Amino acid sequence: MNCANHAEVENTAFCIKCGKPLCVQCARQVQSSVYCENCLADSMGSKSTPRSDYAASGSSSTTQKAGGASPEAAFILGLIPGVGAIYNAEFFKAAIHLVIFAFLVSLADNTHGPGSGFLHFMAFGFYVYMPFEAFYTAKKRKLALQGIDLETPFDRLNEQLGEFHNRELWGGLILVAIGVVFLLDNFEVVTFDKIQKLWPIIPMAVGALLIRRFTQGKSE
User: What is the pTM of this model?
Assistant: First the structure.
């Protein structure tokens, strides 16, 4: 998850008051608690407000951000594609998970030959990924409320992919491409029988990524 104020920077903590993801630059730590700048200012202002003002204005209200509080529940719900992300109040991520999983399953079911097993394995791998991702997201948020910053395996993965900029843009383009593939198949312009022949592009793309990372590491 990226910082709420800097979309290109990974978050390192969550505000304990509003739950907003924060990077190192935006996090404001007071003793063992982490605040965003606005919540810290509000807290400082509320401390200086006389008690009589509260009595005059009535009871004060607090805003609590939606999101999963139980990592175990997030994991169980994550076994249903997209529901774990919904439990964590990440609705856009839930939609992406559903579209990618449905695409992999549909492509695997319409693929014959050696590519069929490969695509079925990819679909199964993504199915396993979803509950674990939901679990660590809920656990990170829960510990952040206690002022503890948890580095999850997915944080390390994001660090490894940090060299790729505009990931939201690329994610949107991928979803549009998937939609175009289904649309073309529905009108039998380009069917899945033809598209499945392109499955070797997937391991080729992964191999190209690894070679690129290797050459960049050599040049540093």
Answer: 0.56
